[in-house]
Design a protein that fits this description.
Length: 213
Amino acid sequence: MAIEKLREYAELGSTENFIPASPNYHFYDEGVQTRYLIPGHFYAFLHMYPVGNDQLPSLDDWTTGVSKNKPYFDNYPIFLALDQFGQSGLGLNVKLLPQLTRRYIVRSYIKAIMPVLEKMVDESGNFLEFEERIRPPRINPFASITLDWMRQRLFSALPEIKFSFLVNKYNRSDMRYLKMIDWPDVPRIGEVNYSTDPTIVSRSAISDYLKIV
């Protein structure tokens, strides 16, 4: 039963038989191919327009306010969609969280939305087909998953988290191979270590800027 496994992960933090193929496992190879960006759901994609680190500010420039641009560029984001998406919208890039913090946030998020997820399963506890789940009224509660919701419900106990560092504006036209990471696979997000990911471009070492969150 998929819903039971999710509940177990939220409560105990255990995943079933998942060993990442690499330390920087990318989710855009899997998941549900979709045109939709739905608030409250996790996505992965390949960015169409990568940039070099010479176009980015240093970590010092960003932390001191010299530059408002992010000191990194993630070519393979893993993000939680927030607010309403049209051609662009906000996303919380959970890949940029240190692994233990990411696991905590993913578990806490699943626990918080479990009452909604429980209404998206059949009598056996397995998830309904994707197209059925995104229809009203089942999908309606996800409209409330916003940036403020995340701050108040999940990040209030972690005041050191700098939201502005994690939140990005994503353009739908920039996304190649957009995949929704379906709920049975969401626990895997917390089990991958991205501290050496070469697809995150930065003028600073990844280990340095992960410390700020």
